[in-house]
Amino acid sequence: MSDTLDRLKALQGADLPVHGGRTLAYVYDAGDSEIDRIAREAVATYAGSNALDPTAFPSLLQMENELLGFACDLLDAPDTAVGTVTSGGTESILLAVQGVRDARPEVARPRMVLPSTAHAAFHKAAHYFGVEAVLVPVGPDFRADPAAMAAAMDESTVLVVASAPSYAHGVVDPVGEIAAAAAARGIRCHVDACIGGWVLPYAARLGREVTPWTFAVEGVTSISVDTHKYAYAPKGTSILLHRDAGLRRPQLFASAAWPGYTMLNATTQSTRSGGPIAGTWAVVEHVGDAGYLTLAGRAFEAVDAIVAAIGAAPALQVLVAPDSTLVTLTTDETCDPFTLTDELVARGWYVQPQLSHAGDGPSIHLSVSAGTLAHVDDFAAALVESVAAAQAAGPVGVDPGVVAFIEALDPASLGDDDFDGLLAASGLVGETADGDLALPTRMAEVNAMLDVASPAMREALLVAFLDRLQRPTRGRTTT
Q: What are the helix (H) ranges across 206-273?
């Protein structure tokens, strides 16, 4: 057993750190070892439990209902509100879209109106459930345009979406105006607060300016909020709340059309591990309302310090003043953003590059946690060093011939051999001397090539990349 655990630790050594406040994407760190300990022990205690049947594991049902109650209080939900604990923000969004589609069977070709900044999970839901995504350009401040959103609604619209905040830019949409326009036409309005739902209410209590977005806004019919983000709970849990039970009912699924047990599910999953539910409940129980107010204060103090550090660097600017805990920065022509990303990673700060989109150039995304506050001086120093290194290295160029070649390709007509060649040419994958898959250690050239590709080509290349990554490792024997 010790050999197995030793190998597990060795494997984990290649991963990004989930603690220490320096991984500014994918993970959310409270900076509190006691929270981490409680979460781990609760997950382990319930790892074998199954939330499929609430009558078999009533403790999980109680924990879920208590989590929903905390979220209802946090989000100004009415007494009629109900909800569901899901596996993450994407599942919450999928269920919101599936439920509204099934609530409107008379609409032959249902549509949902999205600001162009809405999370990609809505596009996934459109793909899965046959709900057309109608994209509406946002304003110059990257917030949804309420008038344009209203103009895009018609008799086939079953859902309108707003973000609190949007992931790419960290700003809150004008939810009140959007929800009012939707309500006037009898259309549901979903607020994607997967990022902000557990921190924006505390931001308001801390005196920060927050655009109204909760159930206190008339016309908001459902909200998604991730507990594995700023509730600092273990991966992966999220909450989907509906204003009343009638709105949730189409989300629920039952089937007695087979000889086994009657299937009954509130989520897209059947079997659900009790571990994440128990871990989330334990963390929320331990931290409590006052604790989350303190953690939010630390996170926003870190945000303000990082914004100041970016403002002090002549080659950088904050793209838009953040409404929440997400910061997006851009660079001038002297500093390549993809090289800057690599330089920050090399100095122990993982930041997330965002490629060009709809006429806007590339940017760099930071998800700031309470755990980052203790290290903001280190970040400021790393930022200065990284900018200097990126400026010394110069811009990453893509050969014009390669650009022309990529632009001429039709991703729909490419075969596996074509993708293998493109992946090798882009630097996304290679081989070691032993024939094993080799991943790039620096991504600037890869990102520069992806940045000149069309969205369709990016998608095709990255799907091929994922396909190459996820292949069986054979030949290992166990005892």
A: 245-248
